[in-house]
Specification:
278 residues; alpha/beta; 7-stranded mixed sheet; 6-stranded antiparallel sheet; 8 helices; globular; binds FE2/S2 (inorganic) cluster
Length: 278
């Protein structure tokens, strides 16, 4: 069926982010598709290893990088296990872009605060680079990023590049015991780093993505800083199969995450049957 037919993409580069997290840089095999493909920050795709099946990940690169897309994933099953062994020159399948997106134009003039844990950086990395590629349109850009250990931090080169910029404020932290002798960032959990570092919000939006426990303890901090549920965004990535509202695998009550999400505000999530427990 055409709807489920993947487009061919060539792996043009790979990067091992952590011992079990890998990034693939991908380019459409068909030059016409390469030219015409567009998407918006926050959208996702289904990536296939032929003979193994499909797996859902966000598009981790911003739409402003026109010549390729990137995906970053942890090997957790047979598809991702197969994808992680792909090397430059190999061909995989891709369907997408699917889902809604971060309404970036509505963020103009606002201060943006990113609160991120571990492997949840890829979907927000797409948005962060999209913002940085249009930097003049936004206020302060602040990023609090943490992981269990230094080895678990993804995009280390980009973290260094963000740190070096005068128009980005970056705080990196690792859980106690996860530091190395030469670690120069903070030691502690993300919500603690957030409380210590982030200024009260007068004109801000927050983007929160990470393990449930990180989100749970970051929400009251954000509330204290003045963010209302309508000013806090997150993105859900799990539970997808078809990606196009057909299979009924992704729904929360009557809401299809693949169509109405994956990007939601905390206020929208509070209205879903799972409540604010995302
Ligand atoms: S993934 Fe199939 S309906 Fe959403």
């Amino acid at each position: 069926m055409r709807l489920y037919t993947p487009h061919l993409m060539e792996v043009i580069e790979t990067r091992q982010e952590t011992p079990d997290v890998r990034t693939l840089k991908l380019r459409f095999v068909d030059p016409a598709q390469r030219e015409s493909f567009t998407f918006l920050a926050g959208q996702f795709g289904l990536y296939s290893a032929f003979g193994e099946g499909e797996s859902t990940f966000c598009i981790a690169s911003p739409p402003t990088w026109r010549d390729h897309i990137e995906c970053t994933f942890r090997a957790v099953g047979k598809v991702t296990e197969s994808l992680r062994h792909k090397e430059a020159g190999d061909v995989i399948g891709f369907r997408g872009p699917y889902g809604n997106h971060f309404p970036l134009d509505e963020y103009r003039g606002k201060d943006l605060l990113f609160v991120v844990g571990g492997i949840a950086l890829p979907p927000l990395r797409c948005l962060i680079w999209n913002v940085l590629d249009r930097r003049d349109e936004f206020g302060a850009v602040r990023i609090v990023y943490g992981a269990r250990s230094v080895a678990d931090l993804v995009y280390k080169d980009e973290l260094a590049a963000w740190e070096a910029r005068s128009d980005v404020e970056l705080v990196t932290t690792v859980d106690p015991g996860g530091e190395t002798p030469d670690w120069k960032g903070k030691i502690g959990f993300v919500p603690t780093a957030l409380a210590e570092y982030a200024p009260p919000s007068t004109n801000g939006l927050a983007f929160v993505c990470g393990p449930p426990v990180m989100i749970k303890f970051s929400m009251p901090v954000l509330e204290k800083l003045g963010f209302t549920p309508g000013q806090i965004y997150t993105t859900l990535e799990n539970r997808m199969k078809c990606g196009v509202g057909k299979c009924g695998r992704c729904n929360i009550g009557g809401t299809y995450v693949c169509k109405e999400g994956p990007v939601f505000t905390a206020r929208e999530l509070e209205a879903l049957p799972m409540g604010s427990d995302y």
